[in-house]
Automatic annotation (TrEMBL), chains A, B:
This is Glutamate decarboxylase 1. It comes from Champsocephalus esox (pike icefish). GO terms for cellular component: cytoplasm; presynaptic active zone. Homodimer. GO terms for molecular function: glutamate decarboxylase activity; pyridoxal phosphate binding. One of its GO terms (biological process) is gamma-aminobutyric acid biosynthetic process.
Length: 543, 543
């Protein structure tokens, strides 16, 4: 492959002058002049990984290889936002495993040329799913934030580890300052609050259960669950399954995670919580922990935190708020009231990688009481965290975590916050919620649609059945239920085959499969919502 | 800031022709022609995040912004491998928090210009640590693999999630095929073996304990630890603290993680394991799980797996091999004998992000028995993993994991394997071990050095004291111990202040602080080892 061109720096200006408004901030001073990249003709068919840095004279091949990759990536990015491209080019597992047009997934003993590696990169993107496409509505995490992406590219280039200040000085401080801002948003009094970024909401929720147990029964850390009475945890029947997973993993047992009834909107009924606490106590169990969900996965429901907090105070229970999905609303003056009472929680899960558009993975566990996170998790491994370092080792975070090494998840989020400001996140949240409102208003009385629950959506989740014409006059009953149950999977399969859009569906309780629409991508417009509805109708009309 | 230049595609060839040896594989066919990037003059001081895609007409600003970033990153990469640059430019936390030359870490309500964002990116790298520098020896994970880096850039651009085939078809299959290769390397019989990538070795080890418990006491999943007798786990006193953390987290209690004595090289003494099993049984405890470390953190010791496996078979215990650090040696025909017996393990932790140079995070938990991983972790969340999809849902991995969302850690590793081949990893391993041998031979009889243990290193870990001239004639005793304890921290502090190199130190048991040298970076040469020794002597001569 041949590429011709040049790119050279032809100005040299002073980097030090970083005063506001001054131009040319990025150019370099004389002591630290960097050559800008220059693209040259490169034939990658005879180059291999071993020819790249640190190989002798590997610099040029390295730069050219990375620029080729960037060319592939920037083209992918452009297409991601281009509505004339597909969301995906679907193939079944066996098709991809058999090798599509030479795209061979098998690994071998011998190296491939860099040319083939670049082809592999292109094919990997080609057969993947464009999660940043404005018509991808399938998951709570969607979108492709360019600043966040830049943050990830830098993070992987820095390739370091969060466990000590020694090897991640800047990132450790960014994490601390960002957690402080998040804690302010939660509303805990100044001086309170601690936290850490974890690999995802399930792990953050697991932290909350561990810390609650440590608070009330610290001896479990050393002696195990036999040192505690038979503990029970409470969470909504609509809550994320990670609370149950945490119960199973941490030795409580999933049966001791008691599910709370919800109202028709999927919100916990506080009276049911109190009744189940009393029932558990009567049976000899000891209630420990209540999870209130702020933004449930399917309905987007916000449990009434204040009423739950009253009960937790009355019975001296740990209150956790799982705001993995809804925590982002704290950034919006218009919508943060939905988490009213969150400042009374003992711990909060909040995933910026969901509603705030931060690239995966970015999840925080916030804990009101200072020191308890370290108390719960520290093992004081002297061989890893030496107290006799020359800097203030209280900045080392490793012993707070259940992990040892920890990926740098903070930088992309910090950089996005810098680039957007708090108001940028607020606009993002408000816009996505407006779009859900638009969808709700569009379909609530439209022929062929039935809402799963009445009333305006609390979050961006809009849950609905599409009723094909053939079912519209059918009487309620088992036959109609069975037929309706198959509608969403059929439409979804058609969507994936045609690649035009993607939206999730699921059953819930005794409700047959329905669509769950969510918006978290800033690229979405009303026209994309209209497109989704048109597609559903186009595909569903003959079912 | 002004940049002039152009880069344009000036050939157009057929992409479909991917036959071996054929040129121009990367160029595009007519149906899918991508414009190559073209750099233009861009003034970023009046551009903001909101001007980038998905903004209308945001494409040009987006591409230019990313290319500027790539310019910063490629310059950083070049310097990383340049021995005339420092490993780090050390500052204390308070200095960075006060703001270095305008580098302000605080977040604010209002957005910053893209020009400032690019400056922030440059500063973030400037005040960080070059973990890929050939003289960075501080951690088990080091190096900057260009293919791995390319893999991470692509991964973050694809920004998807491993939980279902639906949204990560290619990555899910890559994970499956790569795990299969790793399982072959472990040596389990064909048809056996399962696994998953986790956020790090500590979580992988936690998986192993959970799965062992599920195997012997499946009812703990639902009923909690009260459904099991008082279980104990065994691991070496030299093993990683994550086994103890898992014991604490999962409800066993850290005191029920029984530490095994080791020989002078840090290897478990099998007779001690058997004695402690019997002792525990006599006290009414039930032994469950034994961890054998393959490559300990400090000494790089390999526990004798076969002898431990014999005991595990005799007493019907789960055998886990923590090969987070040493697992990579399975790729080397010369060194894999150090893990002899690993094929008898029930589970294995193996972190490609350590010895194999894969960027963070990349850790696998491998489990011999098929199905048990899902059995242990599944919660059958129908609302997340719908059984009525149009593809084979056995490829969905989400319910196997303790996580829900899961970052794509596989692609960089798969791409490196493609680009290097198995033989490339073997060469990497062999070269690093040769360098450790070189260091060992250089210092074992050198004046002023004392080895922490006798004999050749098993892994790349070389542990030694540097004895400054002032201590060389001092008699053994408490005074000398106290003085020697301070030598490594003092030299380390000087190293960090001068920024020339970084190496770890720690105490271990009753041994005072000593240096632990490790090599996992392919960029390291004998001259870098020589440099380290020169630096230690230069800095330590007057202590």
């Amino acid at each position: 492959m041949k590429i011709c061109g040049f790119l050279q720096k032809n100005n040299s200006l002073d980097e030090k002058g970083r005063l506001a408004g001054q131009k040319n901030l990025l150019s370099c001073d004389n002591s630290d002049r960097d050559a800008r990249f220059r693209l040259t003709e490169t034939d990658f068919s005879n180059l291999f990984a071993r020819d790249l840095l640190p190989a002798k004279n590997g610099e040029e091949a390295t730069i050219q290889f990375l620029l080729e990759l960037v060319d592939i990536l920037t083209n992918y990015i452009k297409k991601t936002f281009d509505r004339s491209t597909k969301v995906l080019d679907f193939h079944h597992p066996h098709q991809l495993l058999e090798g599509m047009e030479g795209f061979n997934l098998e690994l071998s003993d011998q190296p491939e040329s860099l040319e083939q590696i670049l082809v592999d990169c292109r094919d990997t993107l080609k057969y993947g799913v464009r999660t940043g496409h404005p018509r991808f509505f399938n998951q709570l995490s969607s979108g492709l934030d360019i600043i966040g992406l830049a943050g990830e590219w830098l993070t992987s280039t820095a390739n370091t580890n969060m466990f000590t200040y020694e090897i991640a000085p800047v990132f450790v401080l960014m994490e601390q300052l960002t957690l402080k801002k998040m804690i302010e948003m939660v509303g805990w009094p100044s001086g309170e609050g601690d936290g850490i970024f974890s690999p995802g909401g399930a792990i953050s929720n697991m932290y909350s259960v561990m810390i609650a147990r440590y608070k009330y029964y610290p001896e479990v850390k050393t002696k195990g669950m036999s040192a505690a009475p038979r503990l029970v945890l409470f969470t909504s029947e609509h809550s994320h399954y990670s609370i149950k997973k945490a119960g199973a993993a941490l030795g409580f047992g999933s049966e001791n995670v008691i599910l709370l009834s919800t109202d028709e909107r999927g919100r916990v009924i506080p009276a049911d919580l109190e009744a189940k606490i009393l029932e558990a106590k009567q049976k000899g169990y000891v209630p420990l922990f209540v999870n209130a969900t702020a933004g449930s996965t399917v309905y987007g429901a916000f449990d009434p935190i204040n009423e739950i907090a009253d009960i937790c105070e009355k019975y001296n229970l740990w209150l956790h708020v799982d705001g993995a999905w809804g925590g982002g609303l704290l950034m919006s003056r218009k919508h943060r009231h939905k988490l009213s009472g969150v400042e009374r929680a003992n711990s909060v899960t909040w995933n910026p990688h969901k509603m705030m558009g931060v690239p995966l993975q970015c999840s925080a566990i916030l804990v009101r009481e200072k020191g308890i996170l370290a108390g719960c998790n520290s093992m004081c491994a002297g061989y890893l965290f030496q107290p006799d370092k020359q800097y203030d080792v209280t900045y080392d975070t490793g012993d707070k975590a259940i992990q040892c090494g920890r990926h740098v998840d903070i930088f992309k989020f910090w950089l996005m916050w810098k680039a957007k400001g708090t108001i940028g996140f607020e606009q993002h949240i408000d816009k996505c919620l407006d779009l859900s409102q638009y969808l709700y208003n569009k379909i609530k009385n439209r022929e062929g649609y039935q809402m799963v629950f009445d009333g305006e959506p609390q979050h961006t989740n809009v849950c609905f059945w599409y009723i094909p014409p053939s079912l519209r006059s059918m009487p309620e009953g088992e036959e109609r239920r069975e037929k309706l149950h198959k509608v969403a999977p059929k439409i979804k399969a058609m969507m994936m085959e045609s690649g035009t859009t993607m939206v999730g569906y699921q059953p819930q309780g005794n409700k047959v499969n329905f669509f769950r629409m969510v918006v978290s991508n800033l690229a979405v417009t009303q026209s994309d919502i209209d497109f989704l509805i048109d597609e559903i109708e186009r595909m569903g009309v003959d079912l």
